[in-house]
Amino acid sequence: MTTASAPGKIILFGEHAVVSGTTAIGGAIDLRATVRVIDEPGRVLITTEDLALQGFSFDLTAGHIHSVQAAHATRYISAVLRELDARDMRVDIKSSLPLAAGLGSSACIVVATVAAVSRHQGHSLSKKEIAEVSHRLEKTVQNGLGSPMDTALATYGGYLQIARDITPLDLPPLSMIVGYTGMPHDTRREVEKVQNLRKRYPELVDPIFQAIGAISRRSIPLIKEGNAAETGELMNINHGLLASLGVSSREMEELVYAARGAGGALGAKLTGAGGGGCMIALPGSAGLEPLLVALRQARAAAFQVTVGCEGVRLEAER
Ligand code: PMV
């Protein structure tokens, strides 16, 4: 038996503008996908039992997919199993991340599966190899779409600065609240929307992108020195700029304002592509509890995360 786990992610600053080459900051979070590989002679079987993936069992050797949900999750996993020429094994997946919420759920499943299956086959892939294979596979399943950020964060963990290149950042862990609007988000649609706006109004959108990139860069020393007040302020400015690009929504604004108001957050912004998906909030002096309450009262699924967590790892056998 071989078990590996990999973390989900949030984008702290810089989404959308990063598509045009400015800086973004992402962080791995302590919600993980765990993949366990067990010998199963003559078959290749994928199972999952938890709520995030809504429980299914799928026999790749028999070739029937039972539900849309199963089809979605198995596309990623079976791409990995084909790539690694997996045989005679059962792959059990558990994930505590909501799907299609912008928290990198597919990337951490791919990365954990690559790590667990390759080790089970007796190979020792480096993190660089895991990140490369995983990015290529995720992109293939998503018809050529997908930045390397999610698979890189799931592999390396911590914080990454994404511009033309991906650079690790040495920053302390941050405690944040994630609020999920409950509306699945569609990254491709939101990216196209923003890029179309840019085509129509380059003289307006390019300076907004530049400002977003500047926010990302300014945030680095602030997070490093633990300056939560100014980090929060930058989150609020970043959110306003994203809203001006049309990627917020009424549901999202309600959560952002609930977090800043009753929740006492120092800052709140959408994270990822927007539309639906998630927002993040940095707790103020009253702590995490009022924020969780305020977001739940605003009908969000809200949970605490620690940002800057460890990347893919093999788990001890139990
Ligand atoms: O929706 P997510 O969390 O995968 O984030 C997308 C981030 C964008 O900047 C909007 C797109 C990208 O490829 O960087």
Describe this structure in words.
The chain has 318 residues and is an alpha+beta fold. The chain folds into two domains: 2-170 and 309-317, Ribosomal Protein S5, domain 2 (2-Layer Sandwich), CATH 3.30.230.10; 174-307, Alpha-Beta Plaits (2-Layer Sandwich), CATH 3.30.70.890. The protein contains nine helices and twelve strands. Strands 1, 2, 3, 4, 5, 6, 7 and 12 form an eight-stranded mixed sheet that branches. The chain has a four-stranded antiparallel sheet with strand order 9-10-8-11. Strand 6 and strand 7 (166-169) form a beta hairpin. Helix 3 (127-141) packs antiparallel against helix 4. It is globular. Residues 63-68 have low confidence and may be disordered. The structure holds (3R)-3-hydroxy-3-methyl-5-(phosphonooxy)pentanoic acid. The site of (3R)-3-hydroxy-3-methyl-5-(phosphonooxy)pentanoic acid has 12 residues, from helix 5.
